[in-house]
Design brief:
The complex is a heterodimer of chains A (264) and B (361). In chain A, strand 1, helix 3 and strand 2 form a beta-alpha-beta unit. In chain A, helix 2 crosses helix 9. Chain A has a single domain, classed as Rossmann fold. With 264 residues, chain A is α/β, with parallel strands linked by helices. In chain A, the strands form two sheets. An eight-stranded mixed β-sheet of chain A has the order 2-1-3-4-8-7-9-10, sandwiched between helices. Chain A has a two-stranded antiparallel sheet with strand order 5-6. By secondary structure, chain B is an alpha/beta fold. Chain B folds into two domains: 191 residues, Rossmann fold (3-Layer(aba) Sandwich), CATH 3.40.50; 112 residues, Rossmann fold (3-Layer(aba) Sandwich), CATH 3.40.50. Chain B has a seven-stranded mixed β-sheet with strand order 3-2-4-5-7-6-13, with helices on both faces. Chain B has a five-stranded mixed β-sheet with strand order 10-12-11-14-15, with helices on both faces. In chain B, strands 1-8 form a two-stranded antiparallel sheet. The chains are: A alpha/beta (264), B alpha/beta (361). At the A-B interface, strand 1, strand 2, helix 4 and helix 6 of A face helix 4, helix 5 and strand 9 of B.
């Protein structure tokens, strides 16, 4: 019996899955187990499937995904901390026919950039915001975020977040859903194959809204893990996320086609 | 001859923005420059040229809208006054790092803090020494008339795109608010998206299939690369110093003394020169048009001609005077005079200062 070589396997008829051309071959800087890589992939797959490569401009934030432009193989601009929605506004207003999205973490979007987030949503900018919420500042080494849960330990809340002195975790997604300027607001996750499929559908809907010039902003929150910052294994961090993050940040659509979804 | 109008400085700046073919203006109201966005909103430039005008939620947001649109290769502008310009410094540092072209105006008011809404020139250091973090420069144009408020918009964009740099029109509450005759330049066309994509390969306009993507960033975690980028920026600034110094010499041919001033102080100093010459004092005026680059070489040449003393006149406690001292480099007496905190000096006060601080001793 002859040996099967790699060349025998890599044949068009055997191809069941291929990495999108819109991701570069650069080694991702994210920690193993982190949800960013999946979120990048499905975002780029959506852009590829809609054939939007030539008209899309992405905005990278400050935080773990500051280097998103190293991985997303499209035209990208890196914004100052929290200012991505303003940068996106500037681009979309001068190029109304291009597709513009920002990709931001919780510190960027819900702390330092709260004003830019709320006002871009309130103006109904016809852009997409992809918001990764892992409840912590990952890049700077695990400090408390606006979304850190009560009692949750971080390097700046070493005895747990005390809401009386440190404030409550901010549900900014529910907040922006209340604004007439948002057209689609949803909260998803990428920790299981089923969740990834749902999130991809949500991102698809968000880009479709922009593509068909729907009146308002599409906002996709992805609740994700930060196994490094949470000091857990990737598997444990996903279990912890399901048990602790999801009750506070429930998954599902909050606003669809400009209408708030009735909560069960 | 172009169209003549009687306008406020702020209005002339706004009208010039439309005529210069600017694609977008993002701003936030603040006294004494709110007429800029008010004029633009009233003029409906989206109907005249397709220009976008948007009132942002803050100066921070406005400068980051500028960052985005400039990064996409568009001709884009903002304006503010001192406290608002402080808020823009973060964005301006990013614009410098990412080498994006833009024009913005600061209609300076007295500070520090919320200060006063009256005119001042106390933002000189912020304007020419950096303002935001990091080693960077911007070209600073100082209009001394309503005419120059209009003309420097056009000039500013030429320089901004030539060097991929922010150009600051450093005005003040006097120039912004006063009305003068202004000759407006003809309407210039806006560039099409295709022209922009072709002319500015550095701009993010969408990646062509099979082509390399374009990235706009001021970040490089590799310090060696970041040092090289800084070298590149410094070479660019050196070229600007070499080629773009602009100034005006008024009655300097026979001068024994020279007043150095810019903006409204230069206008006031012109009257001082008249008063001084009536008294037989041979004094001239070096009016700075560019504050960065600063006319070091030109001042050194004047020193060789034997200028006895220099009076730096500015509505501040003494900022530009430091650059005059550096340029004179001990080859003549240098002193500062200026009222500040919102007070505008008179020609007589400037003359008195010249006699006491420069001639008298």
């Amino acid at each position: 019996m002859s040996t099967i070589t790699l060349e025998d396997i890599i044949k068009p008829e055997n191809l069941v899955y291929k990495k999108t051309e819109l991701l570069t071959d650069n080694v991702m800087s994210y920690c193993p187990g982190c949800g960013h890589g999946t979120a990048h992939r499905i975002t780029m797959e959506v852009i590829e499937e809609f054939d939007l490569e030539e008209k899309t401009i992405g905005i990278a934030p400050v935080g773990c995904s500051v280097l998103a432009y190293e991985f997303m193989n499209i035209d990208m601009i890196q914004a100052a901390h929290g200012r991505a929605p303003a940068v996106a506004t500037g681009i979309k207003r001068v190029y109304p026919n291009k597709i513009v999205f920002s990709y931001q973490g919780d510190g960027d979007l819900a702390a330092i950039g709260t004003a830019e987030t709320i006002h871009a949503c309130n103006r109904g900018e016809r852009i997409v915001i992809i918001f990764i919420n892992n409840g912590i500042y990952g890049m700077t080494g695990g400090q408390m975020a606006p979304t850190t849960l009560p009692g949750m330990i971080s390097s700046t809340s070493p005895y747990g977040r005390v809401v009386e002195s440190m404030g409550n975790p901010l549900k900014i997604t529910e907040l922006v859903a209340q604004l007439p300027g948002t057209y689609f607001v949803t909260r998803q996750a990428v920790h299981t194959p089923a969740a990834v499929r749902r999130t991809k559908r949500a991102i698809k809907k968000a880009f479709e809204n922009q593509l068909t010039n729907k009146p308002g902003l599409s906002f996709v929150e992805i609740v994700s893990n930060c196994n490094s910052g949470w000091k857990m294994t990737p598997v444990d961090s996903n279990i912890w996320m399901e048990e602790n993050m999801f009750p506070y940040y429930p998954l599902g659509d909050i606003k669809v086609d400009g209408e708030l979804v009735k909560q069960k | 001859m172009g169209e003549l109008r009687l306008m406020k400085g702020n209005e002339a700046l706004a009208e010039a923005a439309i005529r210069a073919g600017v694609d977008a203006y993002f701003g936030y109201p603040i006294t004494p420059q709110s007429e800029v966005i008010e004029y633009l909103m009233a003029e409906k430039p989206e109907e005249r040229t397709g220009m976008v005008v948007l009132q942002a939620e803050s100066e921070l947001a406005a400068i980051n809208m500028v960052y985005g649109a400039a990064g996409a290769g568009k001709k884009v502008m903002t304006s503010s006054s001192s406290p608002g310009v402080s808020l823009k410094q973060e964005g301006l540092s990013y614009i410098a790092g990412a080498e994006l072209p833009c024009v913005y105006a600061n209609v300076v008011r007295g500070g520090p803090g919320l200060g006063t809404i009256q005119p001042s020139q106390a933002d000189y250091f912020q304007s020419v020494k950096g303002g935001g973090h990091g080693d960077y420069k911007q070209i600073v144009l100082a209009p001394a008339s309503v005419q120059e408020m209009a003309d420097f918009v056009k000039l500013g964009f030429e320089l901004a795109f030539q060097y991929r740099i922010a150009v600051l029109i450093l005005s003040d509450g006097v120039i912004g608010q006063m009305m003068e005759k202004v000759e407006l330049f003809e309407q210039m066309p806006r560039m099409s998206d295709d022209e922009i994509a072709e002319k500015y390969p550095w701009a993010v306009t969408g990646k062509k299939k099979g082509a390399e993507r374009t990235i706009i960033t001021s970040l490089d975690l590799d310090s060696r690369k970041m040092e090289e980028h800084n070298h590149h920026l410094q070479r660019k600034y050196a070229e600007i110093i070499d080629k773009e110094v602009r100034y005006e010499l008024i009655q300097c041919d026979d001068a024994e003394y020279i007043i150095v001033a810019y903006g409204s102080s230069a206008r006031i100093a012109q009257k001082t020169i008249q008063l001084a010459r009536e008294k037989g004092i041979k004094v001239g005026l070096l009016r700075l048009i560019t504050l960065f680059p600063f006319p070091n070489v030109q001042i050194q040449e004047l020193c060789k001609r034997g200028i006895k003393g220099w009076l730096a006149v500015e509505m501040s406690a003494g900022q530009m005077v430091e650059d005059v001292m550096l340029a004179v480099n001990g080859n003549g007496k240098v002193a500062h005079y200026g009222r500040y905190g919102g007070i505008v000096h008179t020609p007589e006060e400037v003359l008195q200062a010249l006699e006491e601080k420069i001639i008298g001793e």
